[in-house]
Amino acid sequence: MKSSLSIIVRSTEIDVNGHVNNAKYLEYFEWGREEWYEQCGLPYETFEKMDIQTVTVNINVNYRRECRQGDKLTVTCQPEKIGRSSYVLKQEIQGERGEVRADAFVTSVTMDRLTRKSREVPNELRKFFEQEKQQ
């Protein structure tokens, strides 16, 4: 399943170079992941009930084109790959004409809330990666 979130670049997100600060892209990607989890029916509370937390352990970002104040952007998120306790989400930030402004691969690990050790990805999350393979 691929999610999509629309945002507009605000003045507070601009740096001294007149474009979006690189750190803000990480926020945009995080908002996009939260939207994906919500659309999958996996809000934070659902993981909490399973005594699981998801922890981001790696983000690889390619900054392709600058974003400026007032730009209307779309942040997408979709499953890419899954392991025993880790998984990768592919994300893009696109401009109004569909041009990719930035893309990222985000690796997360499922962690037991009590022991703070990695834990197998639950089936409730795993099924979205398996659906992606079948398409």
Automatic annotation (TrEMBL):
Keyword terms: Hydrolase
Transmembrane stretches, start-end: none
Any one GO MF annotation of this record: fatty acyl-CoA hydrolase activity
SUPFAM superfamilies hit by this protein: Thioesterase/thiol ester dehydrase-isomerase
Keyword match Hydrolase: yes
Highest rank taxon of the organism: Bacteria
Family named by the database record: Belongs to the 4-hydroxybenzoyl-CoA thioesterase family.
Full protein name: Acyl-CoA thioester hydrolase/thioesterase-3
Organism encoding this protein: Paenibacillus catalpae
